[in-house]
Structure formats: C-alpha cells, structure tokens
Amino acid sequence: MDEPAFDFTEAIAEHSAGFAAAADGNLDAEVEHCPGWTVADLVRHLTEVHWFWATIAEERLGTPPGADRRPPEPPRARLVENFRAGADRLVRVLRAASGSDPVWTWAPAQQDIAFIRRHQVQEAAVHHWDAVHAAGGDLAIAAAVAVDSIGEFLTFSVSSDADPAEPARPSLAGQFALRCSDADAAWTISDGEGLGTVGHEPGARPGVPAISGTGSDLLLWLYGRLELGPGPVPADVIARFRALCFTD
User: Fold this and answer.
1) How far apart are the first and last CA of the chain?
2) Cα dihedral angle (140, 141, 144, 148), rounded to 10 degrees?
3) 65-117, pLDDT tens digit by residue?
4) φ and ψ at 112, to 5 degrees?
5) Are 13 and 135 in a shared domain?
6) Is 248 within a domain?
7) Which of 122, 126, 225, 246 could bridge to 220 as Cys pair (CB 3.0-4.6 Å)?
8) Is 164 in contact with 54 (CB distance < 8 Å)?
C-alpha cells in the first residue's frame, strides 16, 4: 500500500470531533441509512466501536474482547461527552502503537494495528456524514481520505479470494469501474478467481462502463449512502456487487 497523503489518526480525530458536534443536541433525529436508529443509537454504536478497537490495540489482543467487558452505558445526557472520551482514547492508543504489532482483526489478510488505524478512518468519516445528514446538513469527505478508503473498502469489505463470503453468493458476472472526478484515481472491479468473489485493479480499463463522482461521493455510494444515477453500469451487476459487499 502506498503511503496516503494524510495521517490516519488525525483523520479519525477530526471526523470524530465533527461527529460529536453534529450529534450534540440532535440525539432524537432519525438516521436515514440506519433504519430504526436515532442519532443517539448512532452515538452508542460508534462509542462501542471505538471501545472495541481501542481495547484490542491497547492490550494487543489476539481475540476480541468479551461483551462482559463493555463499560456501562452513561446517562443519555452524557452520551456525546462519553463518546468524545472514547474517541480520544482510540486516537491516543493508535498513535502510541506500532502499526506492525500483531492483533486480532476481522480481516484474515491483515492482523495488525495498521489495519485498525486505517479502517477506523472510514468508520468515523461515514458515520460523521450520517450525523451531519441527520441534522439536515451535508459533508464532503476530503479526497485523499476518500480515495484511500475506497481502496481499503475494495480490498477488505467485499467477498474476496482472501476472505470469501460464507455461504457463497452469486458471482458478479460482469465488470465496471469507479472513477474519481477530483483525484487521479480509478479502480476496475471484476470477478475474483473464486466463485462469488470480487477483485479489483487500479485504473479504469478501456471500454468498461464506469461510475464517476468525487471521491467522497464514490465512498458514500459504496456504503449505500448516496445514489449516483443509473449510469452505464447494468443494474443487475450493481445489485450483485452490493450483495458481495460487507458494510455496517
């Protein structure tokens, strides 16, 4: 992986701060893309995510921490305050750790602190967008952050040869490209070697139908937050691709 043009922990800190600001005073708002959730539920979720990964990283755990270790939920009036403290802890722990230190992760191909550090950027960024959207605003994720997150998503958040879906799902049976309009970045997505897996390569192959947008819009499209129009990619290919993605 090429070194990104930004600091992962700084991006986590910035998006966590933005998330908290958007959530504060807006806990009862509905979160459109998390059905049945309010912003308060979203705050609880991201607080737990931060506790989970900070604990793994801090203690260099080889297995996930048990649910019995979770801290008690604070009173509703302190949800955002508690979130801020947990986000600060995650950033502090990740900054102090070596990326090569082995730990448990859900990605078979990468079991180290570096995986946590990188993946938590998009966790914070996408939920930051959710909180801002719930407050009636909009958020554009920085191009460098979005481009790296797209590459990470296509490596780890799809059914791949390294981590196939179980049970197997229908194959993509097609190909398409993602092309950034605000950065020199593109990816061609096609079938992997195994049944029901997805592979990707840098660049857009000539003649392959492409979905174009800013890096922010493409990342949010991958997470099902935005629609970018039908475009030239057949709807059935997109539907099969969606079924081969792992998102939360």
Assistant:
1) 24
2) -140
3) 998 999 999 999 999 999 999 999 999 999 999 999 999 999 999 999 999 99
4) -155, 175
5) yes
6) no
7) 225
8) no
